[in-house]
Amino acid sequence: MKFDYKTTINVPVEYAFARLTDFDKFEKEGFGNISKFTPVGDISAPNIGAKWKVRSEFQGRQRSYALQLRKLVANETVVLGNGSDKFDVEACFGLSKMDSTKTNFTFELNASAKTITGRLIMQTMQLARSRIEKKLSADFDAMRDRMEAEYHSTNRAAQSQA
What we know:
By secondary structure, this protein is an alpha+beta fold. It is about 35% helix and about 40% strand.
């Protein structure tokens, strides 16, 4: 199963990457309305191999799973993954510079089931696909809007002090 999302963020790519990889903030506040992150293990972000226990709601129930930082390329890519008994999941966040103040943002989630239970959950997700895509889009749109508002308010404050 695959979900994807694309948008343009009206901030420089370096700013978008810094916000996208603010792991301390994710651990304190969660990723918007999507998930709450709790660090686990000896490796901490932004080091490859950093792990989190993640809690999010799916179909009215709290679900928890593990995520691991698999790849991090400055100003370009963040890949998080989960290899569990039931699923293989990989989430890729991509950034590319459009110009000095615009960034192309992409998100791709690939998930596959390893067990019968996993397949049943994946079939349930297929049935709820449009609702899941709508929620992902709303959450990413909100992330984009927050990022732009924070960038522009910080930029205005810096200009007024100059």
